Amino acid sequence: MFLVTPQRWRDPAWPPRLTGTLAFLLLLLPAGYLTEFNPAVFLDARSLRASRQCLGTFFPPAHSREFLQLLGSSAWKTVAIATVGLFFALLLAAPLSLLANRALSRSRLGTGRMGFLPACVRAGIRWVLSILRSIPELVWALLFVRAVGLGDTAGVMAIALTYSGMIGKVFLEIYEAQDVKAAEALLIHGSGRLTAFLYGTLPSCLPELLSYTVYRWECAMRSSVILGFVGAGGLGQQMDMSMRMLAGGEVLSFLLVFIGLVWVADRISKGLRLWID
To answer: What is the pLDDT of residues 146-190, one digit of tens each?
Structure first.
């Protein structure tokens, strides 16, 4: 009979794995203590009783004619907020990402180093993109609700600002990950920066740009619902009102429609990605 020696079963990488696991636990335990995370609270008798009472109000889902009309209009508003917000985000992100692209700098041709002023301009634009994406859309929505009042405008502007920073950053990374030789050759032979981008950079990175834009539209759909809870319109605002009135059937109907919207957005996103590829 063939016997396997103990060395055959020994994992040579166990010391770093054990060290990594212990380090993770040493970080996780204090973090759990600081957040006062206690999973046992979900099994408490009062919590279970409150959960049963809350879920009991969800059935049956609201389906009156007037409510379904409100539900349909709120759903369309959610789609509109996400789409218009993403459109304005692209209007801001596209030029900023082009201006920050180092590969389109004329001063770096030959020497490989940009001039002082172009380098400062590009660094400033990168800081603008960082600031825009570092502030969550929920915070922007709270500010715009104070500035322009409750409604869809606050949601559109919140998505536009935060997503412009995200899209601009990713677009910039996609541009600079491409082979810059074609764009540099066009610049050396006297073409403009926009021409060099359109014919030297864009053809190779267009599928990635479109794929990421579609993904961001899908994310904007989810964000538009969350923003409604602070008064930025759409399904979230109506759902918040129903939750305040303890109308569980209406909340369930809103949730079902929201799940349907996310599923449709995911199908559209998947179809567009297959078409792009």
So the answer is: 888 877 888 899 999 999 999 999 998 888 877 667 666 766 766
Given a cut of 90, whether residue 90 has pLDDT beyond it is yes
Q: pLDDT band for 87, please (50, 70, 90 cuts).
A: very high
Q: Show the tokens assigned to 117.
A: 């002023």
| Residue closest to 238 by CA, chosen among 152, 144, 157 | 152
Angle at 131 between CA 197 and CA 135, to 5 degrees: 125
Nearest to 168 by CA among 265, 234, 97: 97
Nearest to 256 by CA among 54, 67, 49, 53: 67
Tens of pLDDT, residue by residue over 44-79, are 778 778 777 777 777 887 778 888 888 888 888 888
Rounded to whole angstroms, what are the CA distances from 42 to 55, 186, 209?
A: 15, 64, 43
Spatial distance between the Cα atoms of 5 and 201, rounded to a whole number of angstroms: 57
Q: Looking at the whole model, is its pTM more than 0.85?
A: no
Question: What is the C-alpha to C-alpha distance for residues 224 and 233, in angstroms, rounded to an integer?
Answer: 8
Type of residue found at 93: A
- Enumerate residues 6+ apart whose C-beta is below 8 A from 223: 82, 137, 159
Rounded CA separation 138/75 (Å): 19
Radius of gyration of the CA atoms of the chain, in A: 26
User: What gap in Å lies between CA 268 and CA 249, rounded to an integer?
Assistant: 29
Phi-psi map region of 37: left, alpha, beta (phi>0 left; psi -120 to 50 alpha)? beta
pLDDT band at 196 (very low <50, low <70, confident <90, very high): confident
